[in-house]
């Protein structure tokens, strides 16, 4: 089922419009779909973008210049910097023309502006993808386009995608808007609004599916993914770990993370009764440790159990993806 879901996503990504067509509206000033000299889709200019400026019959003013951290550019013979960030190329043409006339540099200049290189609109995709990547948003970019840039999800991708947008006020770091997009809803296209339009500055994070850790008296101890949003349980975990290695004690233990404290609570279960169908199976949550002692009943410490299956490393990776 998991492979089928990932295949559907691959088809959806391939079918998405990844050509990143021109997204800027026509403001009635002659803006075209492509910059004439750079062949890049027109978008608003941002900080650190490289701008190509051509002034007819004025080679001393014709050059490429990078937008500075304040969003301005500086041209020779102009005393004042020219505000560039937030403008479309055609709007910057008008600003440069006005500045040249106002400062008596030229009488009737003909100015052409194009974007040579975008650096102000990065989109990063990380986590459970085949090729984590950062690329520049030029033209129309959707969430499926971004996942396509990262060559799709891995088999162990979780059930949701985190889209972290830059704050409206770049100086306000207190609030980071996060949207949670269900993978199944994005794939099925039942709700087209889930295929978000990205404008640059977003971080796309795909957490891995939750895992349960099975240790102790089983044939295959380890960490097992809970994929497709399905629930795990003691019996499912035993099946994934290929059953008991030898005759076991009657009791087993679940160690579950306590919210916020970082510690774990201990839940004792009657393993023999669950296996004999005399009591209901017990559900497991992501990051639970299921520990099954041997027949002697001797128990290892929790620290030893966490180290034996790399619980600490797994949790640290998950927290990085979730940005905590």
How would you briefly describe this protein structure?
By secondary structure, the protein is of the alpha+beta class.
Layout of helices and strands, plus pairs?
Layout: H1 2-15, E1 50-55, E2 63-66, E3 72-73, E4 82-83, H2 89-102, E5 111-117, E6 122-127, E7 133-136, E8 141-142, H3 143-149, E9 160-164, E10 178-182, H4 183-188, E11 197-198, E12 203-206, E13 210-216, E14 222-226, E15 232-233, H5 234-240, E16 251-257, E17 264-270, H6 271-275, E18 283-284, E19 289-292, H7 302-308, H8 311-322
Parallel strand pairs: 6-12, 13-19
Antiparallel strand pairs: 1-2, 1-5, 3-4, 6-7, 8-11, 9-10, 9-12, 13-14, 15-18, 16-17, 16-19
Helix pairs in contact: 1-3
How many β-strands, per DSSP? 19
Task: Name the poorly predicted regions.
Answer: 14-38, 318-322
Regarding CATH, which class of the largest domain?
A: Alpha Beta
Kindly report the name of the CATH homologous superfamily of the largest domain.
Outer membrane lipoprotein wza domain like
Structural class: alpha+beta
Major sheet size, sense and barrel closure: 5 strands, mixed
Order of helices and strands: HEEEEHEEEEHEEHEEEEEHEEHEEHH
> Approximately what portion of the residues adopt beta-strand conformation?
25-35%
CATH-derived topology of the largest domain: Outer membrane lipoprotein wza fold like
Count helical runs: 8
Percent range of helical residues: 10-25%
Strand order of the largest sheet: 7-6-12-9-10
Average pLDDT for all residues: 81
CATH architecture of the largest domain: Roll
Large-scale geometry: rod-shaped
